[in-house]
Amino acid sequence: MPRFSDKVVIVTGASSGIGRATALLLAAEGAKVVASGRNAEALEALKAEIESAGGVADTLAGDLREEETAVLLVRRAEERFGGLDGAFNNAGVVGEMGPLEELSLEGWRAIVDTNLTAAFLGAKHQLPALRRRGGGSLLFTSSFVGVGAGMPGMAAYAATKAALVGLAQALAVEHGEAGIRVNALVAGGTDTPANTARSPGAGPEVLDFIQRLHALRRIAEPGEIARAAAFLLSDEASFVTGAAIAADGGASITKT
Fold first, then answer.
1. What is the pLDDT, as a whole number, of residue 213?
2. What residue numbers bound the domain in which 176 lies?
3. Residue 254 is assigned to a structural domain of this protein
4. Are strands 8-12 and 180-187 parallel, antiparallel or unpaired?
5. Phi, psi of 38 (to 5 degrees)
6. Are 246 and 216 in contact (CB under 8 A)?
């Protein structure tokens, strides 16, 4: 039986990258996926791909920094599919980069709101739904940047990704008795549109630098991170909670 048969899972940041790959994988394994992000056209293409493969999905385009979006996502899961069994709060941005003293307050707030506040708002409304279901799994996307490695020019991003680990740990303790598991997935460099190596003007030396931060000397494909996310969302990880699980290609231990 597929790991996610009859399970309902929210995936945010599903327009591209890790979120999109995870939504496709979960649907292929039987989940009813509620996918969200800002790009409505990309979400509809995702839904069409899932349905063409025989899966089930619904989408909601919206700003995840707004509490209304979090409310509507849970409502969509419960009204269309009957409940909520898991949520992958994955939406995030690298945002404005540079020395901290040159970082604008607007740039700081944009990163914090997208990477951390959106995760807080998602969890705030997902947790009661998981309780109504009798338990489930909540997952946040963290990063080796901020957890195990410091990167110049990425203070705001690193701060939010480190904070997600703390958030997961606190929620795991608060909701463990209700059968709700909460974890953080510490991702390594991944070939997504958000990767700095894909930024306009970035030369091949940028990708080479990022690759050499990893013991495997490469960055991940989105599907590799998706498989780690699926494990943590599944019942196979039934005794894993409050953990920061690295799928980072060895970036956290590489010193050369």
1. 85
2. 8-247
3. no
4. unpaired
5. -90, -25
6. no
Known catalytic residue at 43: no
Closest-CA residue to 164 (of 148, 145, 180, 141): 141
d(CA 137, CA 11): 12
Query: Is 232 within a domain?
Result: yes
Q: Parallel, antiparallel, or unpaired for β 136-143 and 244-247?
A: unpaired
User: Does 201 have pLDDT greater than 70?
Assistant: no
Spatial distance between the Cα atoms of 140 and 130, rounded to a whole number of angstroms: 15
Residue tagged active-site, from 81, 88, 140, 157: 157
Residue identified by tokens 């409505």 is 40
pLDDT digits (tens, 9 = 90+) for 99-153: 999 999 999 999 999 999 999 999 999 999 999 999 999 999 999 999 988 888 8
Taking only the tens place, the pLDDT of each residue in 85-95 is 999 999 999 98
CATH number of the domain within which 109 lies: 3.40.50.720
- CB-count exposure of residue 93 (10 Å: 0-12, 13-18, 19+): middle
Query: How many contiguous H segments (helices) and E segments (strands) does the chain have?
Result: 8, 7
Number of domains in the chain: 1
Q: Residue 205 burial by CB count (10 A; 0-12/13-18/19+): exposed, middle or buried?
A: exposed
